[in-house]
Design a protein that fits this description.
Elements lengths: L1 H10 L4 E7 L3 H9 L6 E6 L16 H5 L10 E2 L7 H13 L7
Length: 106
């Protein structure tokens, strides 16, 4: 976190967006950013590549929605998909987020 804090201090971005983040790394990655950043955070997680060698584009429509449980959604200013995320996956994500309880301060 020391290197990240130094980089953020030097660059002074308007927002931090985590991209290419594996689904199982989202919570620890967000915690690492939040430890040294109090500005807006966005997330563009990467869907896993299936063990059979097919593309992450072959992930089910619900892949992002299924991963939401346990994510600190109230800390995110924006959320989307990464490389290979399909429109139907984003539509399912948007529907799930609209159905979620309101996020304070967002």
């Amino acid at each position: 976190a020391g290197l990240l804090a130094a980089l953020l201090e030097r660059q002074r971005p308007d927002a931090v967006v985590l991209m290419h983040t594996p689904l199982d790394a989202v919570v620890p990655a967000l915690a690492a950013v939040r430890d040294c950043w109090d500005g807006p955070i966005g997330l563009r997680p990467e869907l896993p590549y299936p063990a059979d060698g097919t593309s992450s584009r072959d992930a089910p429509t619900s892949a992002l929605v299924d991963a939401l449980d346990g994510w600190p959604l109230q800390e995110l200013a924006a959320i989307g998909g990464c490389c290979g995320t399909r429109p139907d996956q984003i539509a399912a994500l948007a529907a799930a987020l609209h159905a979620a309880p309101p996020r304070p301060g967002v």
